[in-house]
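Exercise 7.
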Amino acid sequence: MLTLKNLFYVLVFGVVMYVGIQQALEMGDSREWPTTEGVITESHITRTTEQRSSMRYEYEVRVRYSYSVDGVSYSGDRLRIRRNRYSWETNAQRELAEYPVGQRVRVYYNPKEPERSLLKHI
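Solution. The predicted structure, written as tokens, is:
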């Protein structure tokens, strides 16, 4: 007999699988996306507590960039399809150095939904 608790686990598993599959599909599709030039408008590092431990931190590079497609202006904030968190702040600082404010960057955008974009395929 399926209990409410088990049903909840099945639903959560289904959502996680759906999101994972969507990300994998987008990751593959993004390799074929056209590019346009953009410019970094914001860049910084965020620090969060690691999920498995309240004693360790994780660091993530956050950027915002602007770009245009067919004369329409957009802004984006995704470096990659999936977020990349670092255990060491120095690693995050190394990546942050690639994206100073004002830096011109190549933006990959979804031709069907130009508001969906990213800077790296990795």
